[in-house]
C-alpha cells in the first residue's frame, strides 16, 4: 500500500473542499468544514486500517505515513490556492480545520515519535501561512512586518509571493508590497 493509493481514497475530500469555495466564505466559521468530516471518516476507514497493519514493517509504515501526510497537505494547499483570494473568515476556517485534522494526522504512526515531530513541523508551516492570511493586507508596511514576524525571520521571497497570491494581490500589487 502506497501513499498514492491512500490519496486516491480521499478524492471526495478535494471535491468537497473545492465546492466549499473558501475564497468566498462569508458566513460564520464552523467547528469543521464538510471536507474535514469526509477526511476524518476516510482516515478511520478500510485503507487506513490496512495501513495500520503494516506496523510489522515500521520503516515502510513510517515512510508511507509521511508521504501520505505530505501529499495530503500539498493537495489541500493546491485546492485552497485554486479558490483564492482567501479572506480572513476563510483563513480562520482553515486554521480550525487544520487543528481538527492535527491529532489524527500525527497519530497515523503511533510507534515513532520522530514521525510525530516531522508531521508537526509540516503542520506548523501550513498553520503559519494561514495565520499570516488572517492579517489585513491593505496597509502594505504593516502586512510585510506581520509576515516577517510570523515567518520567524525566514522571510523567503517565494513564500511571501505565495501568501500574496493567496490573499488575491495581483502582480502589480505584489511588486508594490514586496518592494516595501
Description:
The chain has 180 residues and is mainly alpha-helical. It has helices spanning 3-8, 11-20, 34-43, 46-53, 58-82, 88-106, 113-134, 140-150, 157-167, 171-178. Helix 7 runs antiparallel to helix 8 (140-150). The model has no long low-confidence stretch (mean pLDDT 76).
- Tell how many strands the DSSP assignment holds: 0
Low-confidence parts:
none
| Average pLDDT reading | 76
Share of helical residues = over 70%
Please tag this protein with its features.
single chain, 180 residues, mainly alpha, globular
Structure described in brief:
The protein has 180 residues and is an all-alpha fold. The protein has 10 helices and no strands.
SSE order and pairing:
Layout lengths: L2 H6 L2 H10 L13 H10 L2 H8 L4 H25 L5 H19 L6 H22 L5 H11 L6 H11 L3 H8 L2
Amino acid at each position: 500500500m502506497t501513499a498514492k493509493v491512500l490519496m486516491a481514497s480521499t478524492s471526495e475530500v478535494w471535491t468537497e473542499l473545492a465546492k466549499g469555495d473558501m475564497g468566498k466564505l462569508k458566513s460564520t466559521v464552523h467547528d469543521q468544514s464538510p471536507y474535514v468530516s469526509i477526511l476524518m471518516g476516510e482516515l478511520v476507514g478500510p485503507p487506513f486500517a490496512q495501513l495500520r497493519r503494516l506496523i510489522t514493517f515500521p520503516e515502510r509504515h513510517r515512510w508511507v505515513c509521511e508521504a501520505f501526510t505530505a501529499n495530503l497537505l500539498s493537495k489541500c494547499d493546491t485546492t485552497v490556492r485554486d479558490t483564492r483570494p482567501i479572506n480572513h473568515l476563510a483563513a480562520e476556517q482553515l486554521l480550525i480545520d487544520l487543528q481538527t485534522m492535527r491529532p489524527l494526522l500525527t497519530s497515523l504512526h503511533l510507534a515513532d515519535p520522530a514521525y510525530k515531530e516531522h508531521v508537526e513541523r509540516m503542520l506548523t508551516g501550513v498553520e503559519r501561512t494561514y495565520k499570516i492570511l488572517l492579517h489585513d493586507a491593505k496597509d502594505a508596511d504593516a502586512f510585510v512586518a506581520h509576515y516577517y514576524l510570523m515567518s520567524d525571520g525566514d522571510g523567503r521571497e517565494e513564500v511571501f509571493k505565495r501568501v500574496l497570491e493567496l490573499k488575491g494581490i495581483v502582480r502589480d500589487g505584489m511588486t508594490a508590497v514586496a518592494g516595501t
